[in-house]
Amino acid sequence: xxxxxxxxxxxxxxxxxxxxxxxxxxxxxxxxxxxxxxxxxxxxxxxxxxxxxxxxxxxxxxxxxxxxxxxxxxxxxxxxxxxxxxxxxxxxxxxxxxxxxxxxxxxxxxxxxxxxxxxxxxxxxxxxxxxxxxxxxxxxx
Length: 141
Hints:
The protein is of the alpha+beta class. It has three helices and seven strands; from the N terminus they run βααββββββα. Helix 2 crosses helix 3.
């Protein structure tokens, strides 16, 4: 069985809010700290983010005994529509995340595509992590 080097995941969720409210939750550091954490209940995060094209971010997800640091650069920011950024951590380097927002019946669909994951284990781990993150985001807005 051969392994490819470019695995892709897609996670989406309809959140009962408008695009602007959801977009603001994606770019405000204080709000991001409330939802940008992939760990179980009790975990927290610290976020430093300059959400503009060329801006950078650092997200520390704090567990019971460890901290997982994630960094990247914003490649594209289109208000109320789209955010594209690189995603680096201890587990993956040079991956790319694209988030799009679309008004749908019942609210706004947030779609997250994570490209260039190195293997199936990272696909499974990141699918689970992003699903938890989007669920937390829905609980905040």
